[in-house]
């Protein structure tokens, strides 16, 4: 008796798993992101405009980032709605460990903002990338150390060496 893809995927997961409609999940996440981006844009419009016409200003970059994100979210939501109502239900297997990894990553990013000025950007980027990879399930020591050091080194070279930006 052959097993279908979902049964094979469930067997390969370690720990409990939940079967969910992928278009419905994409729609819920997309709408949640859209609400967040709209709130972000409302606050970006409250920032002061630049006195220099050539400068993007304090609110210019957040507006650009917000509209760019919104531009990416709209097709994602549209495709999710199409697949949900017209294209049939596609189900996926989601490990219940995945949301815990996401929450751990959110905690790491929060800690990064708390300690950013206290321990310095390079140390903070190195630690945050290391802890994020751990939270996402990476356990190979060479990858953990190599990638986190490479990210911190890249940030240092680009900003400090090339652009002459002084970090705290």
* Widest sheet: strand ordering: 1-2
Low-pLDDT ranges: none
Straight-line distance between termini: 62 Å
Q: What portion of residues is helical?
A: 55-70%
Q: Give the beta-strand count.
A: 2
Q: Which features characterize this protein?
A:
flat, 6 helices, mainly alpha, 168 residues, single chain
Describe the SSE topology:
Blueprint: H1 5-12, E1 17-21, H2 22-44, H3 60-85, E2 91-95, H4 97-119, H5 121-135, H6 141-162
Antiparallel strand pairs: 1-2
Helix pairs in contact: 2-3, 4-5, 5-6
Summarize the structure.
With 168 residues, the chain is mainly alpha-helical. Helices cover 70% and strands 6% of the residues.
Overview of the structural elements:
With 168 residues, the protein is mostly helical. It contains six helices and two strands, in the order αβααβααα. It has helices at 5-12, 22-44, 60-85, 97-119, 121-135, 141-162, and strands at residues 17-21, 91-95. It has a two-stranded antiparallel ribbon. The longest helix has 26 residues, at 60-85. It is flat, with a radius of gyration of 21 Å. The mean pLDDT is 83.
